[in-house]
């Protein structure tokens, strides 16, 4: 009997070819991990990326649509069809694009392919920030004070919830996340107005008016915990990262471990994350995002994808997170236990963006000169080369500069050295601004919160 797609699906996790449904540095990063695991790769591109070097290193390379992401990297049907035509048994979504789209994960599995990521149901639970919070509270993960249910309509009940939490509170859309669809309420007199506005925005942006309310934390740090899980009831956490250095919800510098976090404070939080993964049957890699204020952790969201900043955790844990993610999707038992996980030294990542230094608008054009740093403890994840054309269609990340050294101070010195050895000409980048940031005293002390970078930029502009 000839094998049908249904039969190959029944064969379960086995695959020898991976379609990488992404572009840029992460397409190159995933391709490397596949090759190291002995897997063949299918690269895809839009018309704007036809010349992309990640295409020529893949086993096959197919253009799936026009430059607009909606018609290429977000075209679910074209991607699944291409995977079948090219003989791929699995799809790796990378980050962004379709990586946290539950309907896509479901469609991939229904086509008899493996989605390299968690189940569609895990993605859906975490995509709804209220059900995510409910799952975390049930697993004993510390959350921001506030109910794990949607706000009711009754004004008096809403007022009572706000008073119970205590002002200031924050109203968030259940369908939001990553900074979209939220509004701070300083005091009672603007509560109902804030709810009405956020509800309308949520209805338009996310197709759901569902909202929830939390205590607003005024000066937190953003600290996240990386987990990796298999399909056999095993899960570990790989330490923590500090991603407080951001501007308009775009991370600029990340580091591992988060500075000044005592092991006995983070330990129970990491274990609770592992517990939560086991309780919801999580598979693959994931990130628990926390706000950290006055010595306490508060869960806000879970990311169900591989993240841009995964390298800092790779450097400190020694675990190849992308390989581990692919092996988990193949159905392998996790090859490390919690006792094997250590955190050694300190790592920083700088995101090099092609952007105007004043306006932060994406800067497209040809990179006519490129020098990249090298040396002990220096890693560069990039897809660009001299002569590369940065297109205006996609996000402006052109390279990630990653360093690792025994101590935080040494890692900062190493990043200064790496930044000094980085030259990108022909387009504007944020390199000058990153160089200045690594000379900043408060940053050197690890004394910064989520508002620091924007304040620093404001002061710098004034000076
Ligand atoms: C918060 C908060 C303060 N209190 N929630 C922004 C992104 C989204 N992941 C959640 N965000 C926030 N949620 C409570 N209860 C402040 C932020 C926030 C923020 C969080 C992390 C990193 C940068 C930020 C910048 C502004 C606001």
Topology of this protein?
Blueprint: H1 5-10, E1 17-20, H2 24-36, E2 40-46, H3 53-57, E3 60-65, H4 76-85, E4 90-92, H5 102-110, E5 114-115, H6 120-127, H7 129-139, H8 155-165, E6 169-177, E7 180-185, H9 191-206, E8 211-215, E9 221-229, E10 235-247, E11 250-256, H10 263-280, E12 284-293, E13 296-303, H11 310-317, H12 321-329, E14 346-353, E15 365-366, E16 369-371, E17 378-382, E18 389-390, E19 397-405, H13 408-420, E20 423-425, H14 431-437, H15 441-445, H16 452-462
Parallel strand pairs: 1-2, 1-4, 2-3, 4-5
Antiparallel strand pairs: 6-7, 6-8, 9-10, 9-12, 10-11, 11-14, 12-13, 14-19, 15-18, 16-20, 17-19
Helix pairs in contact: 5-6, 7-10
Descriptive overview:
- This protein has 463 residues and is an alpha+beta fold.
- It folds into three domains: 11-116, Rossmann fold, CATH 3.40.50.20; 145-215, ATP-grasp fold, A domain (Dna Ligase, domain 1), CATH 3.30.1490.20; 221-462, D-amino Acid Aminotransferase, Chain A, domain 1 (2-Layer Sandwich).
- The protein is built from 16 helices and 20 strands.
- It has an eight-stranded antiparallel β-sheet, with helices on both faces.
- Helix 5 (102-110) runs antiparallel to helix 6.
- The longest helix has 18 residues, at 263-280.
- The relative contact order is 0.11.
- The site of ligand MV4 has 17 residues, from strand 6, strand 8, strand 12 and strand 13.
């Amino acid at each position: 009997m000839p094998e049908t797609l249904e039969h190959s699906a029944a064969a379960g996790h086995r695959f020898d070819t991976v379609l990488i449904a992404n572009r840029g540095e992460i397409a190159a990063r995933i391709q490397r991990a596949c090759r190291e695991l002995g897997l063949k790769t299918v690269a895809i591109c839009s018309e704007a990326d036809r010349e992309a070097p990640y295409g020529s290193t893949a086993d096959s390379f197919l253009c799936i649509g026009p430059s607009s992401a909606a018609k290429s990297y977000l075209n679910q049907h074209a991607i699944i069809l291409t995977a079948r035509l090219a003989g791929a048994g699995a799809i790796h979504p990378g980050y962004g694009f379709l990586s946290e789209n539950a309907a896509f994960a479901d469609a991939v599995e229904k086509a008899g392919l493996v989605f390299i990521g968690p189940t569609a149901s895990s993605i859906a639970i975490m995509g709804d920030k209220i059900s995510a919070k409910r799952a975390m509270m049930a697993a004993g993960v510390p959350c921001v004070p506030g109910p794990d249910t949607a706000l009711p309509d009754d004004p008096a009940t809403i007022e009572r919830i706000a008073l119970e939490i205590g002002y200031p509170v924050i109203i968030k859309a259940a369908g939001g996340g990553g900074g979209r669809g939220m509004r701070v309420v300083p005091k009672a007199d603007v509560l109902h107005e804030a709810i009405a506005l956020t509800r309308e925005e949520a209805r338009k942006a996310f197709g759901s008016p569902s909202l929830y309310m939390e205590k607003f934390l005024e000066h937190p740090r953003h600290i996240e915990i990386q987990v990796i899980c298999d399909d056999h009831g095993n899960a570990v956490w790989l330490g923590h990262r500090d991603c407080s250095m951001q501007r308009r919800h775009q991370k600029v510098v990340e580091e591992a471990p988060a500075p000044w976090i005592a092991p006995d404070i983070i330990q129970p939080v990491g274990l609770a994350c592992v517990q939560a993964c086991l309780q919801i049957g999580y598979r693959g890699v994931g990130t628990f995002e926390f706000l950290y204020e006055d010595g306490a952790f508060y869960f806000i969201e879970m990311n169900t994808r591989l993240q841009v900043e995964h390298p800092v955790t790779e450097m400190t844990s020694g675990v190849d997170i992308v390989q581990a993610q692919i092996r988990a999707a193949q159905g392998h038992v996790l090859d490390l236990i919690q006792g094997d996980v250590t955190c050694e030294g300190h790592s920083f990542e700088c995101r090099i963006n092609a952007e105007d230094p004043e306006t932060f608008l994406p800067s497209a054009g040809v990179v006519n000169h490129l020098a990249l740093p090298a040396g002990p403890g220096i890693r560069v994840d990039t897809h660009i080369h001299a002569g590369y054309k940065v297109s205006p269609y996609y996000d402006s990340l052109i390279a990630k500069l990653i360093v690792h050294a025994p101590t935080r101070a040494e890692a900062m010195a190493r990043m200064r050295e790496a930044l000094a050895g980085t030259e990108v000409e022909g387009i504007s980048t944020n390199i000058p601004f990153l160089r200045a940031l690594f000379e900043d005293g408060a940053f050197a002390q690890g004394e910064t919160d989520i508002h620091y970078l924007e304040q620093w930029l404001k002061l710098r502009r004034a000076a």
